[in-house]
Amino acid sequence: SRRKQGFDSPTDYFSNSKISTSGPMSTRFVSYMRKVCAMGRKERIEESTIQLVTPIVEEQGYELVDVEYTKDKEDTHLIVYLDREGGIDLNAITEITAPISEALDQKDLIAGAYILEVSSPDLSRPFKRPRDFEKNLGKDVEFKLYQPFQFEMDGKKYSDKEFVGILKGYQQDQEQVTIGFSDTEEYQFSLKDLVWIRSYIEF
Known about the structure:
By secondary structure, the protein is of the alpha+beta class.
């Protein structure tokens, strides 16, 4: 569904919200505002949507997996990806879309018209949020590097940009992951060096 005129900056959004800038929450608020203001417009909209929608979907038993704000030649799309134990079907998506749409209408986060889409996550979606990494610890992942990585395993030398391994660790504060290629071979990679990392699906 298409939306109406909205706010185009975090200052506009928060000045029209009920979030207090004083009291015990003030430090957290200022920290969050600095984070949001340092983002580009796309990232600001996605982050503000995450903050707004998360409590709504969690109350209904869903997990907010991701939010994407995209534009094509004709339309602007705000895509909210949800999941829950046992999966999510079309009826569930229809039911949860209404409260999400209502909340977005009330806050008017986005300037101009856009199309709201609520969907289950694509299995090939790259990891973006900490929860993506945490849920996939111990599982097979595939990833692509900006630069070739060279290593030796079982007497053989390897050099490539794309690999499949096991996600052994995720260090959020250091922004890096540990990937295992065998029972004894593990390597750490900075997230900044990764083009993408996602679940490995063997067909």
